[in-house]
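My current task is to audit a protein record that another person submitted. Please read both lines and tell me whether the tokens look consistent with the sequence. Do not assume that whoever made the record got everything right. I have pasted the whole thing underneath without changing anything:

===
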Amino acid sequence: MEEEMRGHAIRKIYQVVAKRTALSTKPSTFVQDFKLVKSREVKAPPRYPIFATKEKGNLNMAQQFDYLLILDFEATCQENSLGPMLPVQEIIEFPVVQLSTSDWSEIRRFHQYVRPTECPKLSSFCTTLTGIIQEMVDDKPTISNVLENFDEWMKEDSRLEKGNFAFVTCGDWDLKVALTNEAKFKNLKIPEYFTQWINVKKAYAAHTNHFAKGMTQLLKIYDLQHKGRHHSGIDDVANICEIVRCLGKDGHNYRITSSSNQTTASKQQRFFREAPRKTK
């Protein structure tokens, strides 16, 4: 009798163990759902935000400035191995395109080549880089005359009023370094409207929280084809205009980012992640 009871107890134990083993080998609902999700190849969210394209945007967004004047100077230069251009880099191409922020169309343009006076002969490196040959600057006005011509051009458009327009550059070199240094060296007075501007690279960083290294990368980000010759001032302006349009249509409200006043500019410093490289 005692042995029968012991055998019965052992059989019960075996039955319980077998039942639990069977349950443990059966996939749970969670595991089944996980396999189903995995089989559908659900992708993880992108690491970076999706960047705007030229088709997207809000054309009706009110901008702080009615007009943006895009500029990109070219200046005398020589190979790095020869050191800096002495006594000063001189602007040799002065292009500006005026855009309306109401529809991002071009209103008009100013374009003049400039004759350098401190180093009147262009280096072969400068010609190779910019495409500007000696004959293109020899009989042109000097920077002081070009600044006067540009000021007259500005006054021709009565729609341009203080506070309703801003200059746009791709970097701070054009207005903070090139024009400022040359004007200081030659004792020229710079118009007040050149003392603050919008750096489109900083504008892009403020809009996306990513920093683009330059015009070429910004063109790639917005799926824009580079047109013309790189380091041709007027061609660079045309390409920057396309970037400015895309960023504006994507909803960015342009604000002043840079100033020739070092104190003002330093207060606007921020740190951003590098923009991801777009792969095909």
Notes: The chain has two domains: 2-39, 67-274. Residues 28-57, 264-272 have pLDDT under 50 and may be disordered. Strands lie at 67-71, 74-75, 91-100, 106-113, 165-169, 196-199, 210-211, 258-259, 273-274. DSSP finds nine helices and nine strands in the chain.
